[in-house]
Write a structure and sequence with these properties.
Helices cover 30% and strands 26% of the residues. The chain is an alpha/beta fold. The chain folds into two domains: 3-110, 3-Layer(aba) Sandwich (Cobalt-precorrin-4 Transmethylase, domain 1), CATH 3.40.1010; 113-236, Tetrapyrrole methylase, C-terminal domain (Methyltransferase, Cobalt-precorrin-4 Transmethylase, Domain 2). α6 packs across α7. The longest helix is centred in the middle third of the chain and has 13 residues, at 140-152. The radius of gyration is 19 Å and the shape is elongated.
Length: 243
């Protein structure tokens, strides 16, 4: 039997991939992933067998990885960012109960919340929460409950999947929920688009301005806490050191 390595490839740029992740892809016979993510690594790992599935075919993708591993192949299942943060490691381990003879290894990567901080400055120096606004797998009511709780606790908040064609107003709704739950309209926020990819760009704005800003699925949103401020054009959340 072969094995499966669930590999977080980072935000997209090869230089932001961990050494261990790159080694796993070099050693793989087959690389399996969502079409967009496979295209990000194809150039740097020529000569591999690449297998892809479109969005919403995650279960099929994982089964495909196990089928290849059952052929005595070394398989890399790739995910953007980190394999364990909205990645495929959980689903692979769930399905792995049906394939007890196949070893599974989880290899970490740089998730967007971490990759985006260097673009904006230092927004996550204190406690923070990560919340996805996608309601494909999570009820919208539960997402809203989590937004309220994070705002009431004065967490910095990172929003994944902030918008799509079907959810064009979800970010605006999220901002208003948090303002209603205690966050000031003047809270310092930031957005980063195409983290670690061509066209990377970041912007700092207030929570009220963020509520009126259109973003896309390639954007990660950072919402500060009550102490977050702008220093030299950078978004900074102090830890509390006396200086």
């Amino acid at each position: 039997m072969g094995k499966i390595s669930v590999v977080g490839i980072g935000p997209g740029e090869y230089e932001l991939m961990t050494i261990r992740a790159a080694r796993a892809l070099r050693e793989a016979d087959v690389i399996v992933g969502y079409t967009v993510y496979v295209d990000l690594v194809r150039e740097n790992f020529p000569g591999k067998k690449f297998l892809t599935t479109p969005m919403k075919k995650e279960v099929d993708r994982c089964r495909l990885a196990f089928e290849e591993a059952a052929k005595n192949q070394n398989v890399a299942m790739i995910c953007s960012g980190d394999a364990g943060v909205y990645g495929m490691s959980g689903l692979i381990l769930e399905l792995g109960e049906k394939y007890p003879d196949i070893d599974v290894e989880i290899i970490s990567g740089v998730t967007a919340a971490i990759g985006g901080t260097s673009v904006l400055g230092a927004p996550l120096i204190h406690d923070f929460a990560v919340i996805s606004l996608s309601d494909l797998l999570t009820p919208k009511e539960k997402i809203e409950k989590r937004l309220r709780a994070a705002a009431e606790a004065d967490f910095c908040v990172v929003l994944y999947n902030p918008s799509s064609k079907k959810r064009a107003d979800y970010l605006s709704q999220a901002c208003h929920i948090m303002m209603e739950s205690g966050k000031s309209a003047e809270t310092v926020c930031g957005i980063v688009r195409n983290i670690g990819r061509e066209g990377e760009e970041g912007r700092i704005l207030t929570l009220a301005e963020l509520a009126d800003t259109q973003v896309d699925m390639f954007t990660t949103v950072f919402i500060g806490n009550s102490q977050t401020k702008v220093i030299g054009g950078k978004m900074v959340t102090p830890r509390g050191y006396q200086i």
